[in-house]
Amino acid sequence: MRPLRGRFKRVITSVAVVLAIVIAGTAVTATPASAHYFGLTKMDDSRVDFGSDEDVNDHFLFWNHFVHYQMTDQYDARTDLSGVEQCRHCWNDGTDIVWFAFPIPNASNGSRVLGDWSCRSFTLSGKCDRGRLRFNEGLTRAISGAAGFAITCHEIGHATGAEHYSDGGCMPASMNVNAPFTNVLSRHHIDHINSQY
Amino acid sequence: MRKWIAVAALVLLGGCAGPAGDDSAVAVSPYQTLTVPFDSLEDFVTERPIIVTGKVVAADDSAYEVPVDPAGEGNVAGEGAEIYGTVSFTVDSVIKGDVKPGSTLTIVYISGKWNKADKKGGRIAYTHEDMANVQRADAKLKSPAELGDTTFAIFAAPKPPTLPVGADGLYVAGIATVDGAGRLGFTGEPPFVAATTTAVKLADVKAAAG
Fold first, then answer.
1. How far is residue A154's CA from residue B175's CA, in Å, rounded to a whole number?
2. Of A159, A165, A166, A157, which is closest to residue A190 (Cα–Cα)?
3. Which of B33, B137, B138 sits opposite A107 (nearest CB)?
4. In B157-180, which positions are buried (b, 16+ CB within 10 angstroms) versus exposed (e)?
5. 8 Å CB contact between B110 and B157
6. What is the 8-class DSSP label of residue A178?
7. Cβ separation A108–B109 shorter than 8 A
8. Interface confidence (ipTM) of the complex
9. Residue B83 near residue B120 (C-beta atoms within 8 A)
């Protein structure tokens, strides 16, 4: 009996070790579900390095105005984030937000896209290390200042970790470009950012 | 003893492996767009050349890989390839467009990218608000078995030339579930401004399509 019990014990122990390894691996990569999603892809710290990779001067001059002032007036001044602007084309793989204008095709449902954000590189801890922020270049010199400020406030919000929500701030999912929503952060959004960084 | 450990490890890890090498780290991230909604259902229906109902028969969240131009705006040397997924529907009924019932319509979407050119660097898996009907929170597509008899309304257009997947016969589409009462269920923001707060029905789409 004793040799059999010993062998059984070793098999159980080995299976438990393998299971523990698999479960630990799953825990590292799994995504927790949340009704109000915020912060999973947030930047790695409160210092927001941002820079443009826009090649065309006119696109750069138009959009840089909005990006610069929204980062300064909304995110730097009203939250715990600190925006650090890099000169054009000076960004590197660790820059938090790299922005440029692009002829973004329509969305899958055919609707016109004003801007988009996606994570292009992540850290081993699962946070977004470099986000790509694009503005539809067809809007350059074609929209009002109010719309430009609204779009940039919105897209930078995604880079901080915000999802779409309608609370009076700049994060609704869609926008009438001729009657843009507010171009400032809501208190709700500010509180989320300050709790994360 | 070692044989037991090897067998157990192979069975467990083999069960987790996916077609895109899921044994590497995966970071799930939303792919977010700010859009201009159509002014009405009629405008939306006019813009879509193909509108059908159907059921999911196949789903592959890593059907294609497209290398990224390292010299392109926003890219760096060593950038990982983009990954595109597909969802195939068997067509039950045709509301608009040159499609036959019983045929298969496959839509394509960007499903993620490799973190670095070296795939050991892990993969980013994108979630899409407007695809939550067919996509799980971990960004993997639901299988046809999971979706069962769920009927979808598919508002499709041929894949635009700007979409860098070379394969032919693919479409892009907005999708909505159709419940037993014929009501459409979009996830995320509906693609049009509704005239009323009442749920839009498939009958409304048929009427708008004329």
1. 25
2. A157
3. B33
4. bebeeebebeeeebbbbbbbbbee
5. no
6. T
7. yes
8. 0.86
9. no
* Segment B103-129, tens digit of pLDDT: 999 999 999 999 999 988 899 999 999
Contact (CB<8Å) B174/A109: yes
- Long-range CB pairs of A5-8 (<8 Å, 24+ gap) are A7/B1
pLDDT in tens, B156-172: 999 999 999 999 999 99
- Are A147 and A177 in contact by the 8 Å Cβ rule? The answer is yes
Q: How many CA atoms, within 13 angstroms, populate the side-chain half-sphere of residue A29?
A: 18
CB contact under 8 A, B37 and A111: yes
Residue A14 is predicted with a pLDDT of: 57
Which token pair is A80? 């715990």
Phi/psi at B121 (nearest 5 deg)?
-75, -5
- Whether the per-residue pLDDT at A28 is higher than 50: the answer is no
Query: What pTM does this model have?
Result: 0.84
Q: Which residues does chain B have within 8 Å of residue A128's beta carbon, measured at their own beta carbons? A: 27, 29
Q: Do you know the residue count of chain B?
A: 210
